[in-house]
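Standup notes
- DV: blocked on the single-chain target, sequence here:
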Amino acid sequence: MPAARLFCVALASLASLRAMAPTKNESLRLTILAAIFPGMKISGDSAPVRKITRRQPGAFPPIDFPDALAGEKQYSIVGEPANATEMCAAETLLDSSVSRVRELQFKVFVLPLTHDTVAVLQYRFAGANPGGNCWSVARVVRLSQQQNGWRVSQDLVLEEQHHTGFEDIEISDIDGDGFDELILDMNWGGAAGLIGSSLQIYSLRDGHLEGLLHVTSRYGGEDEAFEQKLDVAATKATHGKRFCFRKIEYAEAGYKVLRNPRVRATCYPRYEGVERR
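- DV (later): unblocked, structure below
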């Protein structure tokens, strides 16, 4: 094989191991927002970034809940709630008032094979005090470029009880098939101080988002405490038939803290936890 060809193959292999960087092109980012929120007033906040979502408390150290949108610019998007999900997040239960102002942070990725874009958005409605299942709105939107501009081709609302933010947002080829996957880690909460997060994986092949996995990635409660970290090398070894993790157990029944956390390998079959239609 010619040296130039070898060099290109090496670059392609190296690229497949790296996470895709989100675009910093502000003009494109604003254009994408305009396509997702048509007819609404959109403005960027030049002030220091504020936390738009409540972060999970560190009640179960050493489990960490990082903020995947930390440092991202905040945008104000003004317009009436567009659907039942937004109405739930915009309404204050005590007086039935409805906010029209979204406080939003997001990331946009440009897919090199199709030139589509994927936007991962997190927003709340300013001044609203909604029910616990509507604290904030999390969406994944895929857009394709048409002659008259960008068009939304798929819009997924990610529903988790007491969701407050993303712990990870990444695009990378984790199963070794040459196509990228979208990896999302988003937190949730429940009764009696229960907290955790879910890792979701979506295929980006064939011009649409397809759910591949939905499992618990962090968990803290009375019965146990653990986190699971994706093992990309082990996943690729299965040729994408299974998604493998390193599970680290910090506590067991009765929240008995383990002096030496237990680490074990675990794998899930493709489509574990996914409702297929």
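- Follow-up: The longest strand covers residues 256-269.
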